[in-house]
Write a structure and sequence with these properties.
Two copies of one chain form a homodimer. Chain A is of the alpha/beta class and 433 residues long. The first copy, chain A, has three domains: 2-111 and 232-301, 3-Layer(bba) Sandwich (FAD/NAD(P)-binding domain); 113-229, FAD/NAD(P)-binding domain; 321-432, FAD/NAD-linked reductase, C-terminal dimerisation domain (Enolase-like, domain 1, 2-Layer Sandwich). Chain A has helices at residues 10-22, 44-48, 63-70, 130-143, 155-166, 186-198, 236-240, 287-301, 331-336, 384-396, 401-404, 421-432, and strands at residues 2-6, 27-31, 73-75, 80-84, 89-92, 97-99, 102-105, 109-111, 124-125, 147-151, 170-175, 201-205, 216-217, 220-221, 224-227, 231-233, 264-266, 273-274, 281-282, 315-319, 322-328, 341-349, 359-367, 373-380. Chain A is globular.
Amino acid sequence: MALVVVGGVAAGLSAAARARRIDPRLEIVVLERGPAISYGACGLPYFVDGRIREIRQLMGYTPEYFRRERNIEVRTGARVTSVSHARREVTLESGGRLRYDHLVIATGARCDVAGFAGADQPHVFTLQTLEDGARMRQFLSEKRPRSAVVIGAGYIGLEVADALRRNGLQVTVLERSAHVLGRDDAAFTAAVQRQLEAHGVEFASGVEAREIEADRVGDVRCDMVVVAAGFKPNVELASEAGVATGRTGAIRTDERMQTNLNGVFAAGDCAEATHVVTGRPAYIPLGTTANKMGRIAGANAAGKRERFGGVAGTSIVSVFGMGFAVTGLSAAQARAEGFSPVSARIEANSKPGYFDGRRTTVELTADRSTGRLLGGSAIGEDGAAGRINVIAAALHARLRVEDFEQLDLAYSPPFAPVWDPLLIAAQQLVKEL
Amino acid sequence: MALVVVGGVAAGLSAAARARRIDPRLEIVVLERGPAISYGACGLPYFVDGRIREIRQLMGYTPEYFRRERNIEVRTGARVTSVSHARREVTLESGGRLRYDHLVIATGARCDVAGFAGADQPHVFTLQTLEDGARMRQFLSEKRPRSAVVIGAGYIGLEVADALRRNGLQVTVLERSAHVLGRDDAAFTAAVQRQLEAHGVEFASGVEAREIEADRVGDVRCDMVVVAAGFKPNVELASEAGVATGRTGAIRTDERMQTNLNGVFAAGDCAEATHVVTGRPAYIPLGTTANKMGRIAGANAAGKRERFGGVAGTSIVSVFGMGFAVTGLSAAQARAEGFSPVSARIEANSKPGYFDGRRTTVELTADRSTGRLLGGSAIGEDGAAGRINVIAAALHARLRVEDFEQLDLAYSPPFAPVWDPLLIAAQQLVKEL
């Protein structure tokens, strides 16, 4: 039996490694079109800001490691040009062909700069690969730019804005929609904007920036531009092979991560997954999800029957030391999905006042008719990750806010106040339901 | 209608405040035998170690505040000597009597020094009240003791050991049982012991220390002694009034926090609560639980019908900057409760290696036959509180470890690694089930 995996970063390597653990005799080949595998793309902003000194700190396992320790063949610079599922065969740009019994498509996503006129200029960057990071760092040290425009206020956009500001640049973030992080939540967006502005970063939403000139984007003068928008799943190869995409534009999968073609799985930033709150397909490309999906795809491709538990859209971004975290649906998203959302938003200390507690904002949203929690957010310098994870667990467990209010959470002055902000938010929401 | 609350700290005041919010016309009297109400006893170790400068930082609301802002009468120095439920009446030491329609008993617990010979010497301390804290601080600054014995390795014992060591004392902790924090868990105890010893605190378990001499406890020379053992619920008043206690020795309550006497509620450190894992009564006196129980007792005493969701035994203690957190049952406790526990214990980084992650230990225990999570622990300098709270939420929701493994937890390098230690532990446990 042979397993071919297209893509050698998070999802692809997770799939290959898991398949190997399950079936020691499976023939496994991973095909990566780029020069590197297994890199920590999520660390790139911290390489740009200088907190990570050497780009090799972001490199994970090597092809040699996989060959030697896992008996997995990993080829870099191996671009797959077509898949014939009828013949169970992939064709490489080099002309070579590979037979498979099972195929895992983990082709990732891209920041599609094609929609931006002038994106091919040397002062325009994206931040997806190690080469992107190295090129940006080199530009910063050699050209000493004094100002930057970041197009897009998703995770990468916000992290890059933070990183460039720490390099001393004047930074402006331009976001096409009315909100940040793809989260339709005005209060959350306002909080991010306040934090950006408090640290000298300009933020403008509702700005369509399609033309990049040599020294400006629209009205904003700048010495460099980072495109952190236009994120698109790489589905072309799959589509041409007859793999169906879903309403989100990413590859449709079942709960085993199998596509419409029997024996062909998809995982990571190219694939949809089921949302735990809506029960419907969602496209929320994130590194942690990619690894999880890959693990399930690899298990099933190796003959197991495992189910992916779905995504809640849990994520967190650090903006100048403040954690901005979300999970599940915002009130507006919940309404669009047919729920009757009710929200409560509170501010409270992360610890007792006498123990240097920091202001923490928690918002919880529940469905009026059932009381079921639908989503939430947590903002703070301290404990935002832990708090959003408790809400995420509650979403997976389909807890009602009345149950959530009863959670026995840890209390001790160095860690948390006697009433955790999560519980204060839940009490407030119970009153409003 | 009149509500009388016996006890004016966490549970009692929560009950009174909640009852007032529900019924603006209820007559509410809180009787506190001590001189102070509403104080942050959990902060006392940090007053002893000097991080809290002024004891007034631990003082909360005053009786005047309650009278003025909440229309609640709070009497300090008001010791109740008996309760006649037949007459719906409490008698005060002063001879006065008070009629009630509903009664909330929130008499707390005490550190019972009676079992320790020599406990009345001036160099022997407990740490429960503001006066205890003030007396200990005064002793430290005036007598400049160079060594201390702490009897008991519960939360207070460990926090006091930390605090005294920070004052420069040579500290020895003597614990009667084989484990710390009342948690029958050898690996957890060993981790606490390592942390104590790494910071110069001696720890000996299995040591019965019943006699306190002027300059020693058993073989250990010392200039001062802190008794942080013999914690007992104050049930005498209730028992004499006909209120039943449970198998734990604390006051038996139903899910509304009502005792066996109709209209008499109990809450806080004097009362049992239902354990969310075992479904049986448990006695786990903690500040956060006391507040929650008080809130429910107050609501029901004011005519609502509210249910207390029970306790999971979630708690955390800081020992020299390291968080030691537990929730639910240890494997040994689970076995004693009739489960077939399987545990997995892992060590992993709290963040990516390139982002200054710290070693984190997570243990999860599940029931072999059902896969249901029964408990867990988290140890680390970073994120232990957030992680134990996710496990606690899973216990409330009765998640199986297979579900827990699927949780969509937040990932971003400044906060967490791509595979959170919680998920690594869950994967390990799934393999072992």
